[in-house]
Amino acid sequence: MKYTAIAAVLAGLFAVPAVQAAENTVNLYGIAQLGLTLADDGKTSKLLVEDTGSRIGFKGEELLGNGSKAFFQIESAVAMDNAGASGFASREGWLGLKGDFGTVKLGRGKTYFDLAQEGFDGFNGNSTMINSLLIDGAYYRMNNSIAYETVNMDGFTGKLQYGDMEAKDSNVSPYALIGSLAYENGPLNAVFAFENQKDLAPVVGNGSKATAAGVKVRNYLLGAGYTLPAGTNLKAAVRLSDIDGAKRNTFIAVLAHPFGDVTGRIGFTQAGDIDDVENTGGSYLAVGVDYPLSKRSIIYTEFSYARNDANAIGVNGAGEPTGLLGTSAGFSLNQRKNSAWTTGLIHLF
Questions:
Q1: Could you give the dihedral angle defined by the CA atoms of residues 330, 332, 336 and 339, in that order, rounded to the nearest 10 degrees?
Q2: Residues paired with residue 62 on neighbouring β-strands, in sequence order
Q3: pLDDT value at position 9?
Q4: CA atoms of 241 and 66, how far apart (whole Å)
Q5: Between 129 and 106, where is the model more confident?
Q6: Rounded Cα distance, 77 and 82, in Å
Q7: What is the dihedral of CA 227, 250, 218, 76, to 10 degrees?
Q8: How does 248-281 read in b/e, with b if 16+ C-beta sit within 10 Å?
């Protein structure tokens, strides 16, 4: 009798009505991706096993009635080649509400500027080309974020977020205000994005990129893309950067074309000179192909080459050179010319 009563209680606890089960969902998702890279910085050639963005996450939502939902997302970095670089909730952490009014959320994650800019990566994040985009104080991820997204209005969507204000004291008033306006209709898409930062600490958290306290950063991105009937996708964007009055214009272009099941990709970035001071920019080229082994597994190979102008190379406090563009994270950035050949595998789950 005792065990029968316990079984009845457990059955009652776990007997969720079918309607309620349909209204509450929690999903596990992620990407496992590793690449084998031969990197050359002009002085040393090195073989690397690189995690190119593996992650695991949980997201879920609950119906609240009247078309509204509560939702959450927790996403963690998984460095498959170096466990020390992993971290729980190190990528995304959001909690919010969405409905006919749009989406309101609190937390931490990629900024709307970065998401707009990543649309011009061209390699779906499986390459080091993103390194050529995240320069000149581009934020990447923002802590303590308050964010709002409109619903889709005839192809237009607007996004706005404010954050990293909690370190305010009598000397500094840090903040970041970031937003974007996008349009998508069939084969055409366009986007405008901006970010305005002030008094941010040199290190703002995992994946973030900012400047020293007292420095103001303003970045603007204007870009568009179009897919031709044959499947060829063309995208181009211009980014205008202003770091405490020092201005730089950067041009980004990507091309992708399907050849049967194989997709060929070309990406190019040209970072202009700072305030027209000669030889303070650089250029970046990435060429590659990818092939789907299944609906969830992709294999790719890519060659990338970065060239920093002579005056783009500076020296840090330790007397070490610092570059602008690099093909392989943590290895090639500090040299004027560097290249990398990467072959990798991606699995989505």
A1: -150
A2: 24, 70
A3: 44
A4: 43
A5: 106
A6: 11
A7: 60
A8: bbbebbbbbeeeeeebebebbbebbbbeeeeebb
